[in-house]
Amino acid sequence: MVRYTFKRLLSLLLSLAVASLVIFAVIEVAPGDPASFMLGMNAQPETLAALRTELGLDASKGARYLSWVGGMLTGDFGTSYTYRTPVIGMVADRLWVSLPLALYALALSTIVAFPAGLFAASRRGQAGDIGVMGATQLGVAIPNFWFAMMLVLIFAINLRWFAAGGFVGWDKGFWAGMHALTLPAVALALPQAAILARVMRSSLLDVLGEDFMRTARAKGLTERQALWRHGLRNALIPVLTIIGLQFSFLLAGSIIIEQVFYLPGLGRLVFQSISARDLIVVESVVMLLVFSVIVVNFLVDLAYAAVDPRLRSRT
Amino acid sequence: MRRNLILGGMLSALFVLAALISFFWTPYDHVALDIPNKLQTPNAAHLLGTDHFGRDILSMIMVGARTSIAVALVAVGIGMGLGIPLGLWAAARQGSWLDELIMRGNDLVFAFPSIVIAILITAIFGAGAINAIIAIGIFNIPVFARITRGAALSLWQREFILAARVAGKSAARISVEHILPNVTNLLIVQGTIQFSLGILAEAALSYVGLGAQPPTPSWGRMLADAQTLVSIAPHMALVPGFAIILTVLGLNLMGDGLRDVLDPRLRVVRA
């Protein structure tokens, strides 16, 4: 396990290094000089040169890459070109919307998908199974941002149970914040719940065909007891992987859902920064997203190996 | 389970047909503004109603189908064109540094969700339908590479491959002549699924303004236009939404149906 962890850790660091290089290179290629964008068309050459020095833009590419990465490692993401405030503060503020939203949606999709998958698997081929599977087909086909618009139309505009958009902020209290995030989280959770329910069902069906399940039945357990004591635990392994993978999709998906509800999350920050050509913010947010995906996958791999010793030798 | 294939095929064909017909004929000019007739609900003159500029929604849906299908199709093409050779190559050299490099590269690309790739491309080139194609296409590469490699690995253990090796065929020839034909079914099924995911992704990217730009019609952009008007003209949001749902549903059903038909083993397991 130690050897495996070490190997995975090495590949994690390598992935992060390559990802940061790719992102840095892409932003380097992007046209437009941030300094002249900040100062406008009529800037004096001297002012421009001074600002470029201040922003560190006249250093060599290699030095700038190293200072960017070094800065991120110490929690310094640089200074926004547009707002002249530290990027880390802007990102942290927005993360307090995007991260709870993603976690909320993850919790919702899990709460819905587990019973749905279990129900379908236990009634394989019957009306209940067909009904759940049909619903998941629909859940996968519905674009979540369209579903979000429909939720707004029904629950915000017609029923007035929720606000149509915006975010009250966490200082209004935890429940007020959760209330504001409910519709976005439901919209975000829908396709994930559908996928998760399908994985849960097929994983359970795989396990039900295993020899140890027959043994459990043979020693006198009822179908239900065998399922709960032996089936569920084994079926959960692939399901956990999918949940890990989904977290990154949820974080990315929240970028789109935030647009529907005008939520001040990472998504809005990125879009505002793109139109303002505040590329240092774009660079940092993209790196943060990619970082979280890579790290979550790493943790899932480790959890997987901890549960299933066979996997440690494979990689 | 042939029903899936037939129902899915019919739904998909409906939208492909709509896109094809739109090249020759649409009920109205899809860009013609007709302000006096704006925001009409579906009626005899405008079967699916009109939008806030009085444009005919049916015509926009038909032309928009072109964008969706073209973007998703090319994106699947990119994913297959690069992913399949990479997967075959990795499988042929299983366990080598090359295999490791390709698979780690795959993991890396996989860490960039298509929305993030689209954001990066937009930062360089500005927004456009081409960005959506590239972003979704790049996202598809590791999907096809992984599935090709996985299927190819088990084939390499089979006797008929051993026979081909004994006969002196090179790994490259074996990959093309023996491995590829045996993974085609799998790739067709996956292609259908990626195609439907591509349509969803294109709609999402266009919705947030990273995809097709005016005047190119797109289902995602129609939804973006509909958002502020959803309370007074819900049909503007309902119609493109249903177009997306039915197309994606059709493609997914077709994928399921194809899997059942192309892989009889799975059918036995399911029954």
Write the layout of secondary structure elements.
The complex is a heterodimer of chains A (315) and B (271).
Chain A: H1 2-29, H2 34-39, H3 45-55, H4 61-73, H5 87-122, H6 127-141, H7 144-158, H8 174-208, H9 211-218, H10 223-261, H11 266-275, H12 279-307, H13 310-314
Helix pairs in contact in A: 1-12, 5-6, 5-8, 5-10, 6-8, 7-8, 7-10, 8-10, 9-10, 10-12, 11-12
Chain B: H1 2-22, H2 57-92, H3 97-110, H4 114-125, H5 129-155, H6 159-166, H7 171-207, H8 219-227, H9 235-262, H10 264-270
Helix pairs in contact in B: 1-2, 1-9, 2-3, 2-5, 2-7, 3-5, 4-5, 5-7, 7-8, 7-9, 8-9, 9-10
Structural descriptors:
heterodimer, A: 315 residues, mainly alpha, MetI-like fold, 13 helices, flat, B: 271 residues, 73% helix, elongated, disordered C terminus
What does this structure look like?
- The complex is a heterodimer of chains A (315) and B (271).
- Chain A has helices spanning 2-29, 34-39, 45-55, 61-73, 87-122, 127-141, 144-158, 174-208, 211-218, 223-261, 266-275, 279-307, 310-314.
- Chain A is mainly α and 315 residues long.
- Chain A has a domain at 95-313: MetI-like fold.
- The radius of gyration of chain A is 24 Å and the shape is flat.
- Chain B has a single domain (3-266), classed as Orthogonal Bundle (MetI-like fold), CATH 1.10.3720.10.
- Chain B is 73% helix and 0% strand.
- Chain B contains ten helices and no strands.
- Chain B is elongated and about 75 Å long.
- Chain B starts with a helix and ends with a helix.
- The chains are: A mainly alpha (315), B mainly alpha (271).
- Chains A and B meet through helix 1, helix 6, helix 7, helix 10 and helix 11 of A and helix 3, helix 4, helix 7, helix 8 and helix 9 of B.
Q: Brief overview, please?
A:
By secondary structure, chain A is mainly α. Chain A has a domain at 95-313: MetI-like fold (Orthogonal Bundle), CATH 1.10.3720. Chain A has helices at 2-29, 34-39, 45-55, 61-73, 87-122, 127-141, 144-158, 174-208, 211-218, 223-261, 266-275, 279-307, 310-314.
